[in-house]
Amino acid sequence: MATTAVKKFTLIFYAPPSAVAACKAAVFAAGAGRYPGPGNYTECAWTAVGTGQFRPGATANPHIGTADSGDGGKLEETPEVRVETLCVGEDVARGAVAALKGAHPYEEPAYHVIKIEDF
């Protein structure tokens, strides 16, 4: 009898340092960060600090910086935290992304969802 393995995903997102705790709390409440196995680990994540950059367009409403008329706003560089966490099940991944979007202060949060292959 064949069994269907549960799909696993990595959710990666970037947030300003002041918003990381709220974003992690939201995705963890949605079920992300739970590692399957006998250890019953929860709230698992990896973080690293870096620098994000963007230039807001003329119609943008940026959390940091300002948009102006014409070609857009000034090029901004700002500290950000990259967070990676596990999502077991597509429903958990989708719920975690929705929770991230609700908790994140940016107009358009940057994130990636990557399917993990089980070898």
How would you sum up this structure, described in words?
The chain has a domain at 15-52 and 78-119: Alpha-Beta Plaits, CATH 3.30.70. It is built from two helices and four strands. It has helices at residues 20-29, 90-103, and strands spanning 8-15, 46-54, 76-88, 111-116. Helix 1 (20-29) packs antiparallel against helix 2 (90-103). The longest helix is centred in the last third of the chain and has 14 residues, at 90-103. It is elongated.
Provide the helix percentage: 10-25%
Number of helices: 2
Shape: elongated
Radius of gyration over all CA atoms, rounded: 17 Å
Sheet-strand content, in percent, reads: 25-35%
State the end-to-end distance: 19 Å
For the biggest sheet, the summary is: 4 strands, antiparallel
Order of helices and strands: EHEEHE
Q: Which fold name fills CATH's third level, the topology of the domain at 15-52 and 78-119?
A: Alpha-Beta Plaits
What is the CATH architecture term of the domain at 15-52 and 78-119?
Answer: 2-Layer Sandwich
Please, what is the average pLDDT? 91
- The SS-based structural class is alpha+beta
Number of beta strands: 4
Low-confidence stretches: none
Strand order, largest beta sheet: 2-3-1-4
Quickly name the level 1 CATH class of the domain at 15-52 and 78-119: Alpha Beta
